[in-house]
């Protein structure tokens, strides 16, 4: 097991990764101050049948009351309806200000449960227990929230967990499309911050099978978390460099919203968004990176899908203008002067429309 620390101006908490990491949760809970009074596990109907009984059995060692609440799976379920159902359950179980919520699941569950914790009684503590590769990104950094049909992650709060317990055993049941989705965020971290990590991934992971479920996968998770933790430490509230973590997300979020949440995985949409950002970067900087075609071919080899040609450039642009980085109707994107370095740049509408038409027509 490995233990990292995430430090920000307002919070410091551990991220524990590796097989058997769940065993660290009981001593962590028993050592919290003020003392914990009760626990509520929020999970979804895919994860709960696999892992809920094991987690609640471990939590029962605290001798605290342990409750659970199950929501439907899928990113479309990060909704007002499920937020309300979780709050109702917390009230019915009698959770108080010293209770702790456990988020057991992927990024959707983590975002939803974190938002519930951040707003229940004006904020109680919670712990992330991720079960997907994608959640290596979303479980760290304190962003929580739900979707609105007009935009992804538009309603939420910054609320850091007390800890992230990332037991690698939970990744063994993931289907390949979920591994692919999570690996997109690993690639993103490498591209924006660490050229040598990008080269390592490109040379050693030529298919998703190359990741496996052992050392290489755990190394990728740990390095991705380290990169995100460094950025979050520098910019907790996304007033500066933290915005760079949105590389690929401006179009990616627009794709998810336009197709309907859950139709494409988040990672597949981000992968398409990264390729589009590389195209925009080539226009803005007047030159393409040596790695542009390399990244394009690599993502195809890894099985990331091409966008449906039926998508409307105009509708995608309208979605992009609702991105949190947009300002006064002007789209801002994370672009790359070079691999390992990134910056936020304003991009004019005519260029976006022109490149969206080309991007959607490309085969």
TrEMBL record:
The record's listing under InterPro entries reads: Dehydroquinate_synthase (IPR050071), DHQ_synth_AroB (IPR016037), DHQ_synth_fam (IPR030963), DHQS/DOIS_N (IPR030960), DHQS_C (IPR056179)
Q: Which residues form the 3-dehydroquinate synthase N-terminal domain?
A: 70-180
Molecular-function annotations in GO: 3-dehydroquinate synthase activity; metal ion binding; nucleotide binding
Ordered alphabetically, the record's keywords are: Amino-acid biosynthesis, Aromatic amino acid biosynthesis, Cobalt, Cytoplasm, Lyase, Metal-binding, NAD, Nucleotide-binding, Zinc
State the needed cofactors, names only.
Co(2+); Zn(2+); NAD(+)
Specify which residues bind Zn(2+) according to the UniProt entry for this protein: 185, 249, 266
Report the subcellular localization.
Answer: Cytoplasm
Which amino acid positions bind NAD(+), per UniProt?
131-132, 143, 152
For the keyword Iron, the answer is: no
Range of residues in the leader sequence: none
Primary role: Catalyzes the conversion of 3-deoxy-D-arabino-heptulosonate 7-phosphate (DAHP) to dehydroquinate (DHQ).
Q: What is this protein called?
A: 3-dehydroquinate synthase
Gene symbol? aroB
């Amino acid at each position: 097991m490995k233990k990292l620390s995430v430090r920000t101006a307002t919070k410091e908490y551990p991220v524990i990764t590796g097989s058997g990491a769940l065993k660290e949760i009981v001593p962590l809970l028993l050592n919290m101050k003020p003392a914990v009074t009760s626990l509520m596990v929020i999970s979804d109907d895919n994860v709960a049948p696999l892992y809920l009984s094991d987690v609640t059995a471990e939590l029962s060692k605290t001798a605290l009351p342990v409750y659970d609440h199950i929501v439907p799976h899928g990113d479309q379920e990060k909704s007002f309806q499920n937020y309300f159902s979780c709050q109702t359950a917390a009230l019915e179980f009698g959770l108080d200000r010293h209770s702790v919520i456990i988020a057991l699941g992927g990024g959707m569950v983590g975002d939803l449960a974190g938002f519930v914790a951040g707003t229940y009684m004006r904020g109680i503590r919670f712990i992330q227990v991720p079960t997907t590769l994608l959640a290596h990104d979303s479980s760290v950094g304190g962003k929580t929230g739900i979707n609105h049909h007009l935009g992804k992650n538009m309603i939420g709060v910054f609320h850091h967990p007390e800890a992230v317990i990332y037991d690698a055993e939970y990744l063994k049941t993931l289907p390949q499309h979920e591994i692919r989705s999570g690996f997109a965020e690993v690639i993103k971290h490498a591209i924006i911050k660490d050229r040598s990590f990008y080269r390592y991934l490109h040379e050693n992971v030529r298919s998703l099978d190359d990741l496996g479920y052992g050392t290489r996968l755990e190394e990728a998770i740990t390095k991705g978390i380290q990169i995100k933790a460094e950025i979050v430490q520098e910019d907790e509230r996304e007033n500066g460099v933290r915005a760079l973590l949105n590389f690929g997300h401006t179009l990616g979020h627009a794709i998810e919203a336009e197709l309907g949440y859950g139709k494409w995985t988040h990672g597949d949409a981000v992968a398409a968004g990264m390729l589009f950002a590389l195209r925009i970067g080539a226009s803005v900087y007047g030159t393409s990176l040596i790695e542009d075609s390399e990244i394009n071919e690599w993502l195809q080899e890894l099985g990331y899908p091409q966008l449906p040609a039926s998508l409307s450039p105009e509708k995608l642009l309208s979605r992009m203008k609702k991105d949190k980085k947009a300002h006064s109707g002007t789209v801002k994107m994370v672009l790359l002067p070079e691999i390992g370095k990134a910056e936020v740049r304003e991009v004019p509408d005519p260029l976006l429309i022109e490149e969206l038409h080309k991007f959607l027509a490309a085969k």
